[in-house]
What we know:
The protein is an alpha/beta fold. It has helices spanning about 15-25, 40-45, 60-70, 80-95, 105-125, 165-170, 180-190, 195-200, 215-220, 225-230; strands spanning about 5-10, 30-35, 75-80, 130, 135-140, 145-150, 170-175, 230-235, 240-245, 265-270, 275-280, 285-300, 310-315, 320-330, 330-340, 350-355, 355-365. Helix content is about 25%, strand content about 30%.
Amino acid sequence: MSRKGKVLVAMSGGIDSTVTALMLNQQGYEVIGITMKTWDYATSVGASSKKETGCCNIDSFNDARLAAVQHGFPHFILDIRDEFGDFVIENFVEEYIAGRTPNPCVLCNTHIKWRALLKRADALDCEFIATGHYAQVSKSQEGRYFIQKGTDENKDQSYALWGLQQDLLSRTILPLGTYRKPEIRQMAVEFGYPELAKKNESYEICFIPDNDYRGFLKRRVPGLEGRVAGGNFTDPIGNILGKHKGYPFYTVGQRKGLDIALGKPVFVTRIIPETNTVILGDEDDLREQLMRVSKINWQKYGGLETPMDSLVKIRYKDPGTLASILPYENGVEVRFYDPVKGIAPGQSAVFYEGSDVIGGGVIQRLTM
Length: 368
């Protein structure tokens, strides 16, 4: 019997999750490693892609298993392709078809990976689950669990964890939250895995390892290109500027790859799927001060009864902007004190109080 308890650790085969498992093992936890297969590489990339990348490949599985064997704890591979595909991939496609920009990593963490981990943790009598995310779990005086930013601001992943609910947070351990990436690389060397310290990290969406989401959509929805090609680019007041390749292939804030010459830089400022219209404008046209957010998950507090000020992040690398958040219908309305650029429906909005995650939700539409 372990003196600290039994923990199920998600191991991708990369440096962060491997060090997480080895660190907890060294600290006296009874560790069980688990690697989740979330997607089928053969059906996810185009014929021109020759190299398997990302976390869900045989080399990564073998790396995770080897570390477990060498340090004397069990390791399993869990196939959750059906769960993942039905929910995450279909949502990804549906959101683009609806003219929104999805955030599949947030959705996966919230609805698939953590739930899958907790289900298997219960089956294996594990008290805890752990991952290699750079964030921290804290508990308020009122007994609510919430995510805090990781110490390493360059690696902080708190933005992607806003959707974790209380039953998940109460059993989650995030050992890397108080460390910086160079320290984790050094730990990998000290544990005897110098090759991990040099291993490149993958930033692509796991089921689109070639980073070609347009190609993925075309393969996933046969005939899509023919149905949506030839719509209009317009300016903010409706003047036609040219033809585009189909509204699902563009995102709010996009500047490159528009294939239209107007003598000045222009950006996608709005997408209207009903008319297959993509509106282009200047950089200033991207700036907004109001948005609405729904599908809220509250962490630090149980809800929002009166307006409060919060730092609000609208994308992963966004430093955040001070705003007033107010109750609104089934979500909140966010009123930024200074305009923010590139609010994209479908992306996540995360509310912070200092380093603490108050909660978050999905940007549904802008207040026009």
